Amino acid sequence: MPVNVTMPALSPTMTSGTVAKWTIAIGDMVHAGDVIAEIETDKATMEVEAIEDGVIAQILVEAGTQNVAVGTVIAVLAEDGEAIDEMALVAVVPTQAEDAAQFATKTSTQSAPLALANNAEKKTAETRKEKPAGTGTPTEKKVRIFATPLARRIASDRGIALDHITGSGPNGRILKRDVETVVASATEVGSLSANLMNVPTAGGTSELMANSQMRKSIASRLQESKQQAPHFYLTIDCHLDELLAARRRLNEKAPEGVKISLNDLVIRAAAMALIDVPDANVSWEGEHTRRFQHADIAMAVAIDGGLVTPIIWAAETMGLAALSQTTADLAERARGGQLRAADYSGGSFTISNLGMFGIREFAAVINPPQAAILAVGVGEQRPVVVDGALAVATIMTVTLSADHRAVDGAVGARWLQSFKGFIEHPVTMLL
What is the pLDDT of residues 88-140, one digit of tens each? Predict the structure, then answer.
């Protein structure tokens, strides 16, 4: 019997997702564990695997469809040997009204939305049959254009006439990618032809890009953070020369495959400072303030379309070699869209490092429900005064953004002093 493939819940907070990509097609044989689709959530793009062996009988949700509720049937898997056309909810898209009438009664296992749509087609067909031949208006005699709702919306936004597009879907149905191909081709030549565009191309033209689930989630969470959490900011300069020298010596002695980065040392120092000043290792929960026993540090990783914050759990318990391997693995899986929900859910503190982009100083927005985030700038040589004399030193500027509901200014200052101490005297991290 057929097996329904449903939109999975890929994180505890996920209620809907976007079908970013199908890696299979109708008729393909798959085995349990094979990747069949990529689902975009508010955190990452993750792979969906087949749970049983079988043949893809039906793809019910087109790639690119957004806000698909968890539990929605997105595909149908037939057991090997079953006839695909006997169980498909929608085998083809009808090209004539008469076909639609026959198609609407093909199966009684349709979902409510599909059944309603097909009943509408059936009524339209019956109405047309009742009319004597030749009495239809010129508009009714035109061949109906079949296109997905997403393709119609994109075409409408761009001012593109669908009757000039050749569809690549079943029976010539126009899909999202067909419209996007026309838009891309027009962009290359600088304008669309008069047949495709309702308005001429002119200076100041722009385009609308649909926001991904991740982009929407980032916008919602950070807007909430700035509106509800009273941010305050503390900035301090850290001398890096001793830390950089220690890093060179550590990497010279490190086992093969281990390379300790400056960011690893920053994470280690932040973890040690959180244990040293536990009042900064908290989150605000209304009637209560939660104090964390471990330094569960989330590190911001930029990926296509946004950023994610995978977590190094109990970072204060890790040696530098283990910490380096953990951060490298999390960053690689984040960029590849392979993070599990447990990899990015929770955390007590976040570090955002833009030093690799040459950013000298910035203030980050707190990652709720956490109470603090550290913004790390580039380490660069600057003129400094040492014992009354002008000298040159490698300086890194960091800014702590804190939620004043949970962290007072004095607590934030003590945490920064502790962090600075570990950075400038790296041997103390080993104690």
Answer: 443 333 333 333 333 333 333 333 333 433 444 444 444 444 444 444 444 44
Spell out a b/e string for 176-194, using b for 16 or more CB atoms within 10 Å of the CB, else e. Answer: bbbbeebbeebeeeeebee
Q: How far apart are CA 431 and CA 50, in angstroms?
A: 49
Task: Please answer whether residues 157 and 176 qualify as being in contact, where contact means their C-beta atoms are separated by less than 8 angstroms.
Answer: no
> How far is residue 23's CA from residue 37's CA, in Å, rounded to a whole number?
5
Looking at the DSSP bridge assignments, the partners of residue 402 are 232, 372
Tokens 């318990």 -> residue: 317
pLDDT tens digit string along 93-107? 333 333 333 333 333
Using one digit for the tens of pLDDT, what is the confidence trace for 203-231?
788 988 888 888 888 899 899 999 999 99
Burial of 34 (0-12, 13-18, 19+ CB in 10 A): middle
Q: Are 160 and 179 in contact (CB under 8 A)?
A: yes
Q: What is the reported pTM?
A: 0.62
The catalytic residue positions are: 404
Looking at residue 263, its pLDDT comes to 96
Q: Cα–Cα distance between 64 and 83 in angstroms, integer? A: 28
Beta-carbon contacts of residue 251 (< 8 Å; ≥ 6 apart):
258, 259, 260
State yes or no: pLDDT of 413 exceeds 60.
yes
- Please, what is the angle between helix 409-424 and helix 262-276, to 10°? 130
Distance, in Å, from the CA atom of 269 to the CA atom of 240, rounded to the nearest integer, reads 12
Rg (CA), the chain: 29
Q: How far, CA to CA in Å, does 374 sit from each of 26, 43, 233, 234? A: 49, 21, 10, 10
